[in-house]
Write a structure and sequence with these properties.
Strand content: 15-25%
Shape: globular
Largest sheet: 8 strands, mixed
């Protein structure tokens, strides 16, 4: 049976937390990790906007609102849409070897494989039907509570996402603009007509995913020294975060 490692680690700053995901992927791809995969959890202590890799910042974020609330705008290394992070938003990260599952050999196969497992893990706890909507959303009915994205290397894939739990939904509408690209099921709805909270505590979500991904063992060694250089060279710099306005 495949047994993966668990890393429940929230670093002090938004930039460090984004850099940690990339550092884990690069470490695995370079052969520094020899296990079956890593499941990470983290929960931010402050609000910040995260752009998808190719998003144009001024099309996604309300700069005036972000500035007024001292909410920084960062960019992640994976694709997908822009999100607001903050207290009450649980993040998870999976770093998996493509050779471990045939489905992981393609983008669409990876989306389907991971999203269906996430759905099946949470559905018994949610109290109502959980569905995979669009390509990488989880929803209660037509209301989204989880967005997800991936980045691929030659041998390993990074797949990460968010769960809106005890989260300030109104702030999403304040600091994020209507996205230029939308899944069909959104039907041009405003943010507050499209998103919802998953009515579960973070501990219950973590336990469900840890079981679903067979991650009983803590990851004791990981590339902590690689995080600060990524922050200095990329995640703390406007040249990266705002490179496409």
């Amino acid at each position: 049976m495949i047994a993966r490692h668990l890393l429940d680690l929230t670093l002090p700053t938004p930039a460090e937390n984004l850099a940690c995901d990339e550092a884990l992927l690069e470490w695995c791809e370079a052969g520094g990790y020899s296990g079956d995969g890593i499941l990470r959890f983290w929960e931010p202590e402050r609000h910040f906007v995260v752009l998808g890799y190719s998003n144009r910042a001024r099309q996604e974020a309300n700069f005036d609102a972000c500035r007024a609330r001292d909410i920084p705008i960062l960019r992640r290394c994976s694709g997908g849409g822009s999100v607001l992070q903050g207290p009450g938003c649980l993040n998870y990260t999976l770093v998996l070897p493509m050779a471990s599952e045939a489905a992981l050999e393609s983008i669409t196969g990876t989306n389907r494989f991971i999203m269906e497992r996430q759905r099946d893990a949470l559905a018994p706890l949610a109290g109502e039907a959980v569905g995979v909507r669009g390509y990488t959303d989880l929803a209660l009915g037509n209301l989204k509570f989880s967005g997800n994205s991936q980045r691929r290397k030659r041998r390993w894939v990074l797949f990460h996402g968010t769960f809106l739990l005890d989260f300030d939904l109104a702030l999403v509408a304040e600091v994020l603009l209507p996205p230029p690209r939308q899944p069909d099921y959104r039907q041009n709805r405003a943010h507050l007509e499209f998103i919802t909270r998953l009515p579960l505590p973070a501990r219950a979500v973590k336990d469900a995913l840890q079981t679903a991904w067979s991650a009983p063992r803590p990851l004791e060694l990981f590339p902590l020294a690689s995080i600060d250089p990524l922050v200095a060279e990329k995640y703390s710099r406007d040249e990266w975060n705002l490179k496409w306005l």
